[in-house]
Design brief:
It contains 13 helices and twelve strands. The chain is an alpha+beta fold. The protein has three domains: 162 residues, Alpha-Beta Plaits (2-Layer Sandwich); 58 residues, DNA polymerase, domain 1 (Orthogonal Bundle), CATH 1.10.150; 146 residues, DNA polymerase, Y-family, little finger domain (Dna Ligase, domain 1), CATH 3.30.1490. The C terminus is likely disordered. It binds a DNA duplex through helix 3, helix 8, helix 10 and strand 9.
Length: 428
Amino acid sequence: MKKNVPIAIVDCNNFYASCERIFNPKLIGKPIVVLSNNDGIIVALSNEAKQLGIKNFSPLFKVNDILKKYDVAVFSSNYTLYGDISHRIMISLEQFSPEIEVYSIDEAFVYLDGIHNKDLFSYAQEMQKTIKKWIGIPVSIGIAETKTLAKLANRRAKKNQEYKGILNLINNVEIESHLKLTNVTDVWGVGRQYTKLLNCHNIYNAYDLSKVNHNWIKKKMTVQGLRTVMELNGFPCIEGEFIPPDKKGIISSRSFSNYVSEKNELSEAIATYTSRAAEKLRMQKSVANMISVFLRTNPYKNTPQYHNGCQVMLPVATDFTNELIDYALKGLEQIYKPNYLYQKVGVMITGILPKNILQNSLFDNIDREKNQKLVDAIDKINLEYGSDTIYFASSGVQKKWQMKRDFKSPQYTTRWEDIPYVISNLVD
DNA sequence: TCTGGGGTCCTAGGACCC
DNA sequence: TCTGGGGTCCTAGGACCC
């Protein structure tokens, strides 16, 4: 039988909080929290903050008192910074294996083909030390024969001080006890709904789950559930993706800092989000033939509720910002109703195709050559001088509705974004 | 007063075709 | 009165992930 390749999952500890700490040594040993967009909820905590009993995903207003009382350092999220740190970590990991699968901003699977089992632990220690020394971020590493088991090992490594952040489950005699000590809800692929269902059938931990009947689990949790069970038993069946595939849908949406009712302000927001989505579309060298627009009031609030969305087909697939904005605004026109307190709007681009196979249409009356030069110029300037250096006037200049970021840290690693003046309205 | 944003995969069911 | 079988494509909705 073919031997499985050892898989390590390298996961940054409290990533966003750790990023904020790199450039601010005064924060070592101090509690830190990082907020979501719009400063709405907590999305990352340092260990010290966790020890104060603060929970992830708590709304800021519910924990304000405790934050003040313990002098917790609070940051708005700074994704430009975190993305840059993430990139550096991934580059460092390439020293250790030719096969790295970047799984999220703070995690990567590292395939350790050819490393003998007795050496895996020290190899992982070397990775951990390197990332701490070069970048300053602490990581935990789980090693196993499948991704699901590696994730489980990682969790165990993180939760138990004595492992110092590394656990190898390959040929590990205690594997059964590790499975029994992992709640089923903490298994990769099991969320809230499935936890409820499994608990109803007396399945409480990863070990219980590994023993279920395959037909039963497929019926209850689709083939994805079956894959999870197989993986818990050491049979890899979740494929790696080494080259990230093109996105099939690109969403851009934000909550407003204050409620918005006016159509012209909603239009500005839609134009702004469409610009972002179009930029991403061009980055992956695609075009799209559908744009959806959606809006909604605040579901938590006891005010008149309205949410709606609509899809607009484009006659010719495109990646031009101005064209996409035109169609998005037509969509808004269809669903907008006055007098509601809107909390959020967004756009989603779908029907995505590679640009290089784009066919010319007989009915196309847009000067595509001219538009191409325009967006190329915009992308080039925004890349060099920071995003939003130039933008379409329909996006608005004042942007009263724009999200809150009251606690943002400076741009330590990327120079331009925070430079305070902006060349606006060069282009319409 | 204040509750994120951006994705993926899978299935069921309807429309349509021969 | 009788009312097939098999295939494809699309969409909506539900689950999950970070």
